[in-house]
Amino acid sequence: MRQDIREPAGRLVTVLALAAVTVAAWAAWLGWDQQRDVHPDGSTTGPYETWQVIGLVLTLLAPVYWAASRRPVADAVLGITLGLTVASAYDWSDDASGLFGVGVTLVMLGSLAATAVASTAIASVTRAARRAGA
User: Fold this and answer.
1) Which residues pair with 11 in a beta bridge?
2) Which neighbouring-strand residues pair with 37?
3) CA-CA distance, 94 to 80, in Å (whole number)?
4) pLDDT grade, residue 3 (50/70/90)?
5) 44 DSSP β-pair partners
6) What is the pLDDT of residues 22-36, one digit of tens each?
7) Which of its termini does the chain have fewer beta carbons within 10 Å around, N or C?
8) Strand, helix or coil for residue 45
9) What does the alpha-carbon distance between residue 113 and residue 91 come to, in Å, rounded to a whole number?
């Protein structure tokens, strides 16, 4: 069986488009907040608030759903993971402690795992619904 050259190219375009959407979502939700909050006891938190991260995750559910229900699950997983990894590496690269690499690695592993679970669940539900409706 001969594979059409358009299929790998289409998958690459899907992965890169998902990565671009993810970077844009990161910029919209997290990119503008760079200040740490200092509390009266001297402890610091941030720079992101919980609602910003939740907003990013909920925003990314739409492209994950789109990709996982139409394309191979790996496309959604790779695209979202690539986008979050690139965005966090860029955003945190000026960290003076030098530990940004650890954070970026954790973002990569966490987004890989979470997107794989979500994409697999979405793909199985939508494909089962398609089979039942056909």
Assistant:
1) none
2) 45
3) 23
4) low
5) 38
6) 999 999 999 887 777
7) N
8) strand
9) 21
Q: Is the peptide bond before 47 cis (omega within 30 degrees of 0)?
A: yes
The partner residues of 45 in beta bridges, in order of sequence, read: 37
Give the pLDDT of residue 77: 96
**Domain ranges in the chain?**
6-133
Task: Give the Cα separation of 40 and 24 in Å (integer).
Answer: 34
Whether 33 contacts 45, CB under 8 Å: no
Residues across the chain = 134
Q: How far apart are CA 65 and CA 81, in angstroms?
A: 15
Is residue 33 within 8 Å of residue 46, measured between CB atoms?
A: yes
Tokens, residue 42: 């001297």
Find residue 38's DSSP bridge partners. Answer: 44
CA 41 – CA 118 distance, rounded (Å) = 39
Between β-strands 44-45 and 37-38, what pairing exists: parallel, antiparallel or unpaired?
antiparallel
Strands (E), the chain: 37-38, 44-45
Go through 67-103 and write b for each residue having 16 or more CB atoms within 10 A of its CB, e for each that does not: bbbebebebbbbbbbbbbbbbbbebbeeeeeeebeee
End-to-end CA, the chain: 27
